[in-house]
Amino acid sequence: MKQLGGRTAFVTGGANGIGRAIARALAAEGVAVAIADLDAAAAKNVAAELDAAGHRSLGVECDVTKRESLERALAETNSAFGPVHILCNNAGVAAAAPFEATTPGDWQWVFGVNVMGVVNGLQIFLPHMREHGEEAHIVNTASMAGLFPVGRMPTYSASKFAVVGLTECLALELEGSPIGLTLLCPGIVNTDLAARSRAQRPADATGVDEDSERMLEEGARMGIDPADVATCTVDAIRSGAFYAFSHPELVSQFAERAERIAAAAKG
Fold first, then answer.
1. For residue 27, what is the domain's CATH number?
2. 130, 85 in Cβ contact below 8 A?
3. For 77-91, how does the pLDDT look when each residue is reduced to its tens digit (9 = 90+)?
4. N- or C-end of the chain: fewer Cβ atoms within 10 A?
């Protein structure tokens, strides 16, 4: 998708962090952007900011765990801007706690947003893209934590491993179609993901570990700017790249894991 101007994008988790940065970067390319977020007020604030800068945008309330919410948001976006060409399945939550501190509620919550949120987005938007038949592109946000394990974050890392596997499988099915696909795997990014996740945490997700949460927040403050991840994402959409790494220096850790697996297989 070399020409982005005049297209329409739908970005989940678009009111904060990486999602907001992607929305801004796409808008700067002349893309009409729907900022979809559980926090409707925050989504509308980002849209107002983009509109004030002369871009076309829309803030829509969207809960990615509910298909009907995605359906309503797609209909609203289509009514405002026409067919959606770019889908960024970016919404996500994080929980930091050792495995033995986790509860069934933690697993249901994290997988409900991070995995089923992507599944729901794909199942709602893929038929729409096939129906309008124009060139389109999908970005699924995983993480480097989906390529190698991260201690004290089993729910998050496992959910991102699932997104990696799902996206790699989908790539086989979309090959030769006008729908491109990118697997975005950021490393540590300076966002308030931990705080926002705590605010959304359901009552039955009680596996909280204060030391692990503090480490997550302190690490994030040393992360890269979300705008750098957005630049990586837009470049991947334009070039049609499948893998997008904002932290290429971390790829060596995935390579080491692959080498250990290969060595074990050889005996």
1. 3.40.50.720
2. no
3. 999 999 999 999 999
4. C
pTM higher than 0.85, yes or no? yes
- Bridge partner residues of 86 (DSSP): 9, 137
Nearest-angstrom CA–CA distance, 259 and 119? 30
CA distance 128 to 62: 17
pLDDT digits (tens, 9 = 90+) for 94-132: 999 999 999 999 999 999 999 999 999 999 999 999 999
If one counts the domains in the chain, the total is 1
Catalytic residue, chosen from 10, 81, 125, 156, is 156
Q: Which residues have a Cβ under 8 Å from the Cβ of 212 and sit 6 or more positions away?
A: 96, 97, 98, 152, 153
Contacts of 125 (CB under 8 A, 6+ apart): 10, 70, 74, 84, 87, 138
Q: Annotated catalytic, 243?
A: no
- Asked if the structure places residue 235 within a domain, the reply is yes
CA distance 25 to 177: 26
Q: What is the span of the domain harbouring residue 242?
A: 8-266
Residue 75 lies in a domain: yes
Beta bridge partners of residue 206, listed in sequence order: none
